[in-house]
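S.,

Sequence below, as promised.
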Amino acid sequence: MHLRDHEALEDALPVVSELGMRRAASFGRAPTVHDIDWAIRLMGYDRPVGDDFDWRLPAVEGAHEEWPRRREIVNAVPDDLLRLAPDELGEGVEEFRAAVRELATEGSLRSSGA
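The prediction came back faster than expected:
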C-alpha cells in the first residue's frame, strides 16, 4: 500500500478491511484478496498519488479508533461499485472519492470521542 506523508497504516488498514468486507458481503461470502485489492484501489492506495488525494488524510486519520468514521466511509460506496472488479472501477471511483472528500471537509467525519 502506498501511503502519503503523515498517513498511518494503522488508520488505512481498518478502512480498507471494512471496505473489503462490505464488498464481500454483497456477494454473500467471506472477504478474499480480491476484495482487499478492490478496496486498496478504491481508496487510491494502489499507487503513489499527488495532491489531489489531500482529502484522504483528514478522512482516514484516527479511523483505527473510530468505528463511526469507518462506517461513514464504507457507507459512502455506491452499491453499483461493490460488484465491479478492481480494474473496472472507472468513473464511479471518483464519485466515491468526491463523497468522502465532502464528508471530510464538512467535518462530518469527526471524532466519536473514543
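Residues 66 and 112 are 6 Å apart (CA to CA).

Coffee later?
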